[in-house]
Amino acid sequence: MVTWGVFFAAAVNKTSRKLVMADVSHYLLLTLCSFLAYHVIYRHLTPLLLKALAFRPYSSLDKEKQNYVNFLTVSLIYTSVVGPCALLVHHFDRDLALVAQTGVLRYDSPAVRSLSAILLGYTAGETIVTLTDVGRTDLSLPQFLLHHVVSCWCTLVTCVYPCLPVYSNLVMATECSTIWLNIRVLLKEFGVPKSTSMNKCNNLVFFLTFSYVRVWLLVSKMYIPVTSLLMTKEFYFLELPVVITFAFCSQFFVAINLNWFSRLCRRFSSNDLGYGNDG
Question: Coiled-coil segments, which residues (predicted)?
Fold first, then answer.
């Protein structure tokens, strides 16, 4: 059904239907600024910040580990902006809530597209730094690259096409749990024992946040409604990149997050709560 729908959407895109797109130039400019800011923060701001806040543990690390800690800190900064902002939009943007209730497919949400632009620049910057400088992630490199390539594609589509912003925003809200994952790994790199109250509290908040944004919201508020949309004819009148993104990438994000959640549940009784290779 989905495959035939995609072919149908491709045919529809060749008709005389007017392409509905809002101006994207300022969103792409915001993406570029986010990308450039990533490198400035990683190479200059983060080392200064860590030396000021955690001089002894940071200075005791070798250069390779310092790079990794810088990498984690930049991720912490960006996810602390994108994740909570997306969650606030989900809960308090009444216009977006009305769009979800009425089933409107095309709606221009500047907030969602701006957050997508920031996330796109950050994801692209993080990918390049990982390949050229850090060479280490909490996932295997192929898994990391696959996740980031798909994320870049999805955020780019969200920036360009004002379609289905409610569901795009929910994917960005999942970054709320990444905040606590970054803190967990930073504590580990700084040698904080797993048995400390700080680690235990962070693990609990991480698990609860992950359960909410990456399981409950992603499945009940994004995956199930999008799956229902795939069965409608109207969905395939959207632009082809939008159809491809929501038909296939929604499956991808739900699958990997449920897989990660199963790993979290298996580690729940331990003090080393995670889902990557850093446990």
Answer: none
Q: Is 197 exposed, middle or buried (0-12, 13-18, 19+ CB in 10 A)?
A: exposed
**Is 275 within the bounds of a domain?**
no
Domain span at 154: 2-10+25-266
What is the tally of structural domains in the chain? 1
Tell me the one-letter amino acid at 43.
Answer: R
Residue 271 lies in a domain: no
Rounded distance between C-alpha atoms, residue 35 and residue 152, angstroms:
12
pTM (two decimals): 0.89
From the list 269, 111, 82, the residue with the least C-alpha distance to 179 is 82
Asked whether residue 276 is domain-assigned, the answer is no
